[in-house]
Amino acid sequence: MSPSSFAKAKGLMAAYNKALTGRKNQKSQGKAEVIICPPFLYFQMVDERRSRLMHLGAQNVFWKGQGPYTGQISARMVNEFGAEYVLVGHSESRRLGDTDVIVATKVREILKNNMTPIICVGYKDFVRETKSIVNNFSAEEIGNMFFAYEPIGSIGTLKPAHPEQVGKAIRSIKNIIFRRFRRKYFFGMVGIGGSKNMVPQPVVLYGGSINGENFRDYLEMSELSGFIIGRESFRPESLKKMVQKIEQQ
Known about the structure:
By secondary structure, the protein is α/β, with parallel strands linked by helices.
């Protein structure tokens, strides 16, 4: 969600509320988790207007918690304004200079401030980008993360990745995590260490030219937990359609 003005942001929030609270099947409401990630300047307005069905997320944070960094927004700042989630490692941020090291440092700041990082991978090499996170955090920390497979060729191109490609990538991400913590799996199988020796199972999302029609092509994928929606977020009725269909699954 990146509206070009405050007035448009207010209008979009009103439309979201109308679309998401006016669904026919009231019993299933809440099954689908909706996270709104507005520009930081719109945080207070979005927080005041969002329904109970929406969660607040930030589009990015700075990699340092405090210090003389004029103009930067820290993880603590967005947390104090109500953010529960933070996008990190988005292709647009990586293009502006966010390295794997910077992304990992941001993730640590996000976790330290009790929020969930949504880590985008796929800018250049999703395997390397995933390993740069998995190899530097504990199983417990990784269990509190979301990963989002966003192949650069599908971002803003109207060319979504084929479901088979998405499924293969998600299985690779989960396999990287399993290999990193497989000793915990075997210890857990024999009852050593209890829940501490479980392999983490983070949420994995797909983002890349998803719209109100093609999202259906991905719904049968058991590995996939949800979507990151870009330009289609400006069409609240499409969002409503997606949420309703997901809640019927």
